[in-house]
Design brief:
Layout (H helix, E strand, L loop, with lengths): L5 E8 L11 H4 L1 H19 L6 E6 L5 H6 L5 E5 L5 H13 L4 E6 L7 H12 L4 E5 L5 E6 L17 H12 L3 E3 L9 H9 L6
Parallel strand pairs: 1-2, 1-4, 2-3, 5-7
Antiparallel strand pairs: 4-6, 5-6
Length: 207
């Protein structure tokens, strides 16, 4: 394992129809939206669990879904139930917990089709080289990865989640904390109907 002292925190929902990829439902229906999310999630689990660092899947609503149980057959993966609260509160809780047993963490979601193991390795390399944080910007103004060597409330509280302002606010908070950080080139995730054709053009995209 390349970074045994790190942790990859993968935030994931159970791929249940009507509960995931809701912005795609008008275009493809609940079943197809859930199938797409499951494809993305299983791909991301595979990328994360490829010998980079121990993986913690933070599951919602709980750890019982088959895709989570199957993932946990890998000894490098552990399952955790997301606590209550908004996204920031849940990520802050998981980060604090993970940093009690690790030196650096990467927070990622399951729905970025182009985030891969090379990004995860580079993020850890930057953190271990001394950066306080790593950002993986998303084209829609959010982020697909947040790497941290320490935690601060300001990075998670009062963030306008699910808006195009998330990335800029997070950058501003990092600056106010006087932390050093590195960034990847912007990546895209599959949230809107316009992203679907791009996803289907990728190798392995379902028709």
């Amino acid at each position: 394992m390349l970074f045994p002292g790190g942790r990859i925190l993968l935030f994931a929902k159970a791929p249940l129809p009507g509960q995931v990829k809701t912005r795609l439902i008008p275009a493809v229906g609940e079943q197809r939206a859930a199938q797409l999310y499951r494809e993305l999630l299983e791909r991301m689990i595979g990328e994360a669990a490829a010998g980079i660092a121990p993986v913690e899947i933070w599951c919602a609503p709980d750890t019982r879904h088959g895709v989570f149980r199957e993932a946990a057959s890998n000894p490098s993966i552990s399952l955790h139930t997301q606590p209550g609260g908004d996204l920031g509160e849940r990520m802050a809780f998981a980060t604090r917990q993970a940093l009690t047993r690790s030196e650096a963490v990467l927070l990622i979601g399951g729905d970025c089709p182009v985030l891969n193991g090379a990004h995860l390795k580079q993020a850890f390399a930057w953190l271990y080289a001394g950066s306080d944080a790593v950002l993986g910007p998303a084209e829609d103004g959010g982020y697909v990865l947040l790497g941290l060597r320490r935690v601060a409330r300001e990075l998670f509280a009062g963030i306008p989640w699910s808006t195009p302002a998330v990335l800029d606010v997070t950058r501003r908070r990092l600056g106010e904390l006087n932390w050093s950080w590195r960034e990847f080139e912007p990546l895209w995730d599959l949230d809107r109907e316009a992203d679907l054709d791009r996803y289907l053009r990728l190798n392995g995209g379902s028709q």
